[in-house]
Design brief:
InterPro entries: Sec1-like. By secondary structure, the protein is mainly α. It has helices at about 35-55, 65-75, 80-85, 105, 115-120, 165-175, 175-195, 210-215, 220-225, 230-245, 245-265, 270-275, 295-305, 315-330, 340-345; strands at about 55-65, 90-95.
């Protein structure tokens, strides 16, 4: 979008977590990092220099976190960057922040944002880190219940050639979910009116079923389909996200995170973990509303991130041991472990 540029090639670049007894990354320079991480840092510096060259920037670097300091120092001393800064006309302040300093933000569910939900729940577009597959079967005469129907190519979110779709994507990123869904309806109604499709405008809350019924109007009109293909892909992504079981779980996560924050304020970590324990269920005991193994890993990252420094002791060790046992059992009982669980095991 106009305000956000992602560098997916570097999606796996994470600051090293300092293990017990080892030197913290604060004490090492680039030379002290593992070879793979050194290469990734150099690639990031090169990419940023290219980006700043294209923007004609003379930057001033600031850093928060150990790896960020290394990146900022490398960029400051990078020969092509020094030459660029001599001739560039635009000034900018660049702030580097270690991703591991805000794990609570990335695993929390506080965002009332449609773009975030679409990117979280729909399957990734193969070979992409930042785009998703949108099921396009609804726009065809082929009606199949098969979720993974691969005869029809998936749609996606990137629609650079469709001004209406680009404007709608900005709304998904910048507005609250309710407003963004209303924008989706407005764009659809405008597109249908332009194509003289028999659309009945309705007021009140927008439902996924209502959006679906509007989308179906385009189905038998090839010209209308072609003219508004980008917009239809974004609205289909909205419908599929709103109907997705993970979206209804989102609110459960949010409620549980709020409860945790209250509990952590009033009691110690062991009692929080003991509250969590009965909710860890094996595959054959889970219903669709129960948390999966991945859900628990996300919750644990959230809990430990918001708690900060923890007093260790016998009670905490015992509580952690019980949670570990329950999680290991749940992971071992998974009939088809997800790629993440396979990676962890």
């Amino acid at each position: 979008s106009a305000e956000l540029c992602l560098l997916p090639a570097l999606a796996t670049l994470l600051p090293p977590l300092s293990g017990p007894g080892g030197p913290g990354p604060a004490e090492v320079g680039l030379g002290g990092l593992p070879a793979e991480l050194r290469t990734a840092v150099r690639a990031l510096v090169g990419d940023l220099d290219d980006l700043f060259s294209a923007l004609g920037l003379r930057e001033e670097n600031f850093a928060v976190g150990a790896l960020s300091r290394i990146v900022a120092a490398e960029l400051a001393g990078y020969a092509p960057a020094r030459n660029r800064r001599r001739t560039a006309t635009n000034k900018a302040s660049v702030v580097f922040v270690d991703r591991t300093l805000d794990l609570a933000g990335t695993v929390g569910h506080h965002g009332d944002n449609l773009a975030e939900k679409i990117l979280s729940v729909l399957p990734k577009l193969p070979g992409h880190k930042t785009d998703v597959m949108v099921n396009m079967v609804e726009l065809t005469a082929l009606q199949t219940a098969d979720e993974t129907c691969s005869i029809i190519a998936p749609g996606c979110l990137a629609q650079p050639n469709d001004p209406a779709a680009k404007a709608l994507w900005e709304s998904f990123m910048n507005l609250k979910q309710k407003e963004a869904v209303m924008e989706a309806r407005r764009h659809l109604v405008e597109a249908a009116s332009r194509e003289n499709l028999p659309i009945k405008m309705s007021m009140g809350e927008v439902t996924p079923e209502q959006l679906s019924s509007y989308i179906k109007l385009f189905k038998n009109n090839l010209k209308a389909l072609e003219n508004h293909c980008g917009l239809l892909q974004l609205v289909l992504a909205t419908v599929q996200t709103l109907k997705h079981p993970q979206t209804s779980k989102w609110d459960n996560f949010l409620a549980f995170e709020r409860l945790l924050l209250q509990t952590i304020g009033e009691s110690e970590m062991p009692s929080v973990l003991n509250q969590l324990l009965p909710m860890i269920k094996s595959y054959n005991k889970r219903t669709k509303d129960d948390y999966t193994c991945e859900d628990f890993l996300v919750l644990l990252v959230y809990i430990y991130s918001v708690v900060g420094e923890i007093e260790s002791g016998k009670e905490l060790d015992a509580a952690e041991e019980e949670v570990k046992k329950a999680l290991v059992k749940a992971i071992c009982d998974e009939p088809e472990p997800s790629p993440l669980l396979q990676k962890i095991t």
